[in-house]
């Protein structure tokens, strides 16, 4: 087959066979892998070993910022508040329905015990969910504003946003309570920052006092 | 925001709940500030105080109601995605109607039906507007009708000098 085509095309052009000994240059780094696939056959030095390499869209940031995480955080805190408040309301409702005082009152109130229980759960659950959700909205809003305004996203943003949230949430309750709210926010944010940065702190400690 | 795609399904519930809570909180704060301002006794200071107290009292409740709506909607949406094995506008419309119906469940059957219809129609409008915008923006990228140029004015191709053009 090959020779016949070579003969017929030889009238028009010089035939370059792929069996030409002058072109027998090894293109494979390992000859024993050659029959597998040419794609499997490259120098493993070219494989990046240290870190994963992702392709990012042009102009996009390397990780999700505060805005992309804000809605999830708000949703999580809202749902957690609903769950916590619901359990608390269930506890309170059970206690008040079983430990109701005198007989007439308990009879009047226990007409629909399930309904009462449901009301307890819904009321306390929604109150806690709203509180936690509003706190999360404030915190996320401050965090997003700070990270956009400063152009960076670090622990300082977290601390400032948490303090501002505490101050704003208690801003109508008087100067003293407002200060307490800010202090509570600052304390919680400091604990959070210490917890997330514990690896770095460990590194510092080992660096400065090699034991 | 331009690269903001929606989360995959189970996490979408949390995301939608938070988004709806935020919407309700901000919108409720604006709405209640105006309402409290108008309903307060006269005097600028009192009006601002009334506005503030209205925000404090009512905005979290509106936000919570929004969050319940969003979370329920997204839960039903994800359930439908799981069982129907596709994501289309019908999912949203059905889950909007179901959400409206479920959240009005304690007000009696007629209220449930009314809320379900309102929810379904609302979501149908939203989906329809979305599809409309997609169509309109797709119209922009449609290639213009290519005008075929007459090749004969280029003359005969260079390899055919010996032949006479016979066209």
TrEMBL record, chain A:
Membrane topology, as annotated: Multi-pass membrane protein
Domain of life from the UniProt record: Eukaryota
Region spans: Disordered: 1-28
Transmembrane segments: 69-91, 127-148
Record keywords, A-Z: Membrane, Transmembrane, Transmembrane helix
Gene Ontology biological process: protein import into mitochondrial matrix
InterPro entries (alphabetical): Tim23-like
Keyword Lyase: no
Location, primary (coarse class): membrane
A Pfam family recorded for this sequence: Tim17
UniProt GO molecular function: protein transmembrane transporter activity
Gene Ontology CC terms: TIM23 mitochondrial import inner membrane translocase complex
Localization in the cell: Membrane
PANTHER family (alphabetical): SD19278P (PTHR15371:SF0), TIM23 (PTHR15371)
Name of the protein this chain belongs to: Mitochondrial import inner membrane translocase subunit Tim23
Organism: Coptotermes formosanus
Lineage: Eukaryota, Metazoa, Ecdysozoa, Arthropoda, Hexapoda
UniProtKB/TrEMBL annotation, chain B:
GO BP term (any one): protein import into mitochondrial matrix
Keyword DNA damage: no
Key words, A-Z: Membrane, Mitochondrion, Mitochondrion inner membrane, Protein transport, Translocation, Transmembrane, Transmembrane helix, Transport
Keyword Transmembrane assigned: yes
Record-level Gene Ontology MF annotations: protein transmembrane transporter activity
Region (Disordered), start-end ranges: 142-167
One of the record's GO cellular component terms: TIM23 mitochondrial import inner membrane translocase complex
Main location: mitochondrion
Subcellular location per the Swiss-Prot or TrEMBL entry: Mitochondrion inner membrane
A Pfam family hit: Tim17
Protein name: Mitochondrial import inner membrane translocase subunit Tim17-B-like protein
Source species of the chain: Coptotermes formosanus (Formosan subterranean termite)
